[in-house]
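During the reporting period the student researcher (J.K.) took over the structure-prediction task from the postdoctoral fellow and processed the backlog of single-chain submissions. One of the processed entries is reproduced below for the supervisory committee.
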Amino acid sequence: MIAVSMGGLLHVVLTLVVAAVAGVAIAVAIRPLRLKRQADRLARAQRDFHRQREQLEAKFIERAAISGRPRGLRWTDVDFDDDVIYARDRRTRGLKALVAIEVSFEAVEGGGMEEVEAVSDVRAATAEFLYDAGRWRTEGRVYFNLGPDATVKYLSQDLELVAEEHAGSSRM
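J.K. obtained the following structure tokens:
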């Protein structure tokens, strides 16, 4: 059996309290630095998105057009809005840029949509772009009948809003 004096026990308890207080103080001191680093990463990602936007939009159209969706329709035109919403995937922490688009289609011959009058209607949707390993890319993922705000709300268990840019201005 080990005998511990009252003074020794007090010393151990005091050491643990000091260590805990120091740990909390360090965590509080580091938090602003971590938030600044996150803000800097977001600003860099936003800047990169705007620098690459024209190429990203072209790649989006290419990828979306070869997806075969919607079935029986060929993508003929895509009009991208200037506004951008940035959201973070809650699970992976990956950043996404969401842009409102208007898409025009034509029926593919033999695709079963030739007689549908609504084929020529312009469709509202949201284009998705992914920031991965410091680079923007797209898989051509589109959310039909949802604007960017509605997409974030619809996927609220998976996405959290990070920032919005409205035609030349930005806010977080």
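The committee noted the following: Residues 53-171 form one domain.
J.K. will present the remaining backlog at the next meeting.
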